[in-house]
Amino acid sequence: MKKVIGSISLIVILLLSTILSGCSNKSDAASSNGKVVVDFWTFWGSETRRPVIEKIVDEFNKSQDNILVKHTFIPWGDIWTKNLAAVAAGNPADIVINDINSVSQRAENNQAEDLSKYIDQDTFKEQFYSNLWETVLYKDKPYAVPFTTDTRLLFYNKDAFKEAGLDPNKPPATWKELEEYAEKLDVKQDDKYTRIGFYPLFGGFGAPSWLKNADNGTGYLENGELTINTPNKVKALEWLVEWQKRYGKKTIQNYQAEFSNGQTNPFIGGKVAMFTDVATFYTQIRDSGTKMNFGVTTMPTFDENSKPWSDGGGFVAEIPKGAKHPKEAMEFIKYLTGEKAQKFWAEKNYDNVANIKAAESVLNGLTGDAKTVYQNAVDSMQYTTLSPVPNQYPDYQERINPLVESAIDGKITAEEALIEAEKDVAKMKK
Amino acid sequence: MTADQAKTRLPSISLSPKKTRAVAPSVSSVRKRNLIGYIFILPWLIGFVGLIAGPLLFSLFASFTDYNITSKMNFIGLENYKRMFTLDDMFWTALWNTLYYVIFSVPLTTAGAIMIAVLLNQQVKGMKVFRTIYYLPSILSGVAVYFLWMQLLSPSTGLVNQFLHIFGIEGPSWLFDPNWTKPALILMKMWSVGGGMLLYLGRMQGISPSLYEAADLDGASGFRKFFHITLPMITPIIFFDIITSTIGSFQIFQEAYVMTQNGQGGPGNSLLFYNLHMWNNAFKSFDMGYASAMAWFLFIIIMALTFTNLKVGKKWVYYDGGDDK
Amino acid sequence: MIRAAVRRANQNKRLNVKKSMVFLILFLGSIMLLTPLWWMLSTSLKSPQEIMQYPPSFFPKGFHLSNYIEAWKTGDFTRWSLNTLLIAVVTTIGNVFVNAFIAYGFAKVRFKGRNALFVLVLSTMLIPGFVTMVPQYVLFSKLGWVNTYLPLIVPAFLGSAFNIFLIRQFMMTIPNEIIEAAIMDGASYFRIWWLIAMPLVKPALITVAIFSFTGAWNDLLGPLLYLSDEKLYTLQLGLQTFKGSVQTQWNYLMAMSVMVMIPTILIFYLFQRHFIKGSNISAGMKG
User: Fold this and answer.
1) What is the pLDDT of residue B2?
2) Half-sphere exposure for A170 (CA within 13 Å, toward CB)
3) Where are the domains of chain C?
4) Judged by CB atoms within 8 Å, which residues 154-193 of C form the interface with A?
């Protein structure tokens, strides 16, 4: 009994002291030499990313007399749930890194500050790729500033190409070539594939991306109109169904399951000869220790006349609605998305940065594989479209995907799937 | 020994407390008992009024609005409920998936936990270590575990299928075959059945050894002892376990969220569970009003089940303290 | 006499066979339960290159024990461990004693409105936390508790439906005569709770202690929402640093997951001793 009471009182004392120290922490922040503290939330906590962002923050802080940026790591994915709760409670951070495709969705729901009053849009926007800038606009006003972006490329195994009698410097340029090459690259043993030449739905280019690639870069929506059931998209989906038929459902399921845990990769493991992914996939190949001889190219085109349309995403710096120091926050965002910081970020992480000058100047400093990959990524940018979440149909993907899957599984035809998907999405319009 | 047996059995079975209370309690003592009862539950009352009731009522109200968390909250009547029942096909998919999971996982985990607890209640060498091992999987949490299972369930290099291969069975693609995704999750749940086991073990430890000794003298078999002593004595815990694991299984979320691509509910929507659909509505589409409506519909379903359980429970749950309800 | 001895010998033989069977079953079961964990351990010892290899290797080729040290050094894990420990210990104490107190009221004191209130307790478990999460956050924020441990700790002292229900179930099995006899002797309700009921439900209290400690130790959502200062972070938040948008550092993640798991195993191993002791008291009181 006495022991229990003794330990309880000990704990209470401990608890009180923690709370008190918590309070003193707060006063620390407030009295940081009279500087305005700007809270900056990111999900960059790893040993490769954290030092880079903290260096950028440090450099900025050194150059400032009355702003102090304080960087806090919040876990990936959960950061946005936390941000949402904080906005609802009226005590958000001053800057948060967020997803680019949902900027206008957040703007519409009043979760982010309108930045137009802090910048001169016409000159400011010149710094960034125009497709990125368009994505951060809501009713013609910017609600975020693009930070990084990405675009899908086709990686291929040069050794496998040689083995199959293909020219390792001439990657497939069209869908048709993709099929021909894949056939040559397949390796079969007793009815089982030990290497798959290519399967479009492995890697980072999903069914929506292929449908977009076939349809002149038009996604499921164009200017607010649903463009799900179009002739080219039906053709593309039929093409995807053919691939599944060719390798067999079981083979594909097994492959997907085998490589779903995020540790092993079928391309690096030599089980797939051509693979789609973003440019930073290069660092995974480099760090895998396999010394793989790989090539990279922009996306194959639907036919000889179409362009290598690719799909992109990325991250933005945003000021949550209700932030205490939006003006000071904007000062840092300008620095963060400026040429110097962007160049530093790109050099360290091989991310595609949003700032055009930075992206181009990084390219000049690179050599070898890194240069090839980065060059292709920059080339791909002009044919990269993003997939902003439409405000009338926020959950459109969740409704289309299962139907597209059914078509690929052969349960319904491609046309049926897209007709049904368009109906389904339209029905849930807000 | 027989006297001892009589002592432990008699009061609990043949005498109900109502009968032992010969004199009717006075008014003042009833008042005092009421007061004391409320003093005992006071901490809960404070917590309920201060922290829980507000958000609960708020979400109930939100279910009749177009609440988007950050800016709007207009009353729209039964619009959310209407949309849920008549327009949203995914709602029905999610409900079906969840029911499937509940129907299989609750009985399987309950039976599994009891079986393991019985085994761990024996006196065998190294029992402490065994108990720790059996409890261990339920300690583990977090994303690491789910990725661990994705590896274990890999069709050709995963241990589960390699194990099945020993018996000449070709295992399925588990998480990528819509027919096998839910069984895969039930298998995972079975692995971490240790938490429930602990409850049963705790109760079994409290059963007086004299009951078993008396049965031994009568030459009762192990099965007989289990069905006539152990099982009746653990019914309060079975009751607890069934109710709480039904609630828990209806709210399955994390597994599907982490283990399916983009948290969308897996191949052919086969892992789109109720809470996952709700989460996507609340935090991806910011349609918290709709999500709240879903939550309160789920509330009604589970409430109905729990009430049935409480009613039926009176018939089969045996409290050896005397049922004073 | 002789027949009795023979019978006892046969019984012992049967008992030994039975014991070996139980041992064998438990042993095989243990292997099945532990193999998944082996993957965790083996991944934690591999180099990043080996983790990426296909097919994955069952035994790590090189023993990279350094993963453990390097992972620990990537963040302020010492501070985060102490923070987590503080939260876990305080919430465990709250959960055990407060819930036992409340549960006694629901199990053994007849008062007006008891059954209705108990149904209300249960019903609070039925609403998915997502929909009350934001209003609750706003509430704590209004109280000025955000970025302190109060939102994580205070609720543990105000009862949790699951634990109240659990302890209540155990308290229901306490014979009423014991309590009535004590009342006759003039003991107050609170003395009876502390001196009679609490020792009798010790296995339940231990179970609640183990659950609460593990729960607080592994909690991610609470600390994630309420803590915004890395100095106040917990281990689960620290673990998230290895999980990025593009890549995950599996070797570090698994190494730290193993380390984070160890204290909870220790707690269980230590507490289960009391588990058995508790039963002896209760059996003794009953016999």
Assistant:
1) 37
2) 7
3) 1-29, 76-286
4) none
